Amino acid sequence: MLSRLLLLCALGLVTGGLRAAEPAAAIYPTVTIPTVKTSIYVGSVTLAAPMFVRKGSDYTSTYTAKVFPYFWMGEAGKIAVTITDEDLVKLAKGETVDFKGEGRNADGELRNVEGKATPADAASGKLKIRIWVSPRIELIFNTTYRFGK
Q: Has this prediction a pTM greater than 0.90?
């Protein structure tokens, strides 16, 4: 149900001063986003994704979403968020970056993802991630991110 988050979602959106001689993939090959929770009507959704790894302009990962108390509505899948080299440069300059991506749960259902990364410093910042689980239902997660090597 929460597919893309993490997005990270997330997902790979923060930056530090990019060195001209080094490609962004070498400087920010991974990004981590902590497990995050959001409220839904009479319950909550917890989204977890291990480390996102950069492949081309995408940060990719797997995810699990647990819905309380509706445990049968939980899901798992894969997620990818597009963050270009230009976006990484903007983050390094302290500028906010909007991103998009998508995920697919184990049943192949599409989960559109949109978000905004706001850097706090060169390697971390805040994320606002929106994941659409249906045309009319979106989940909003507010979390943080940290780039790693």
A: no
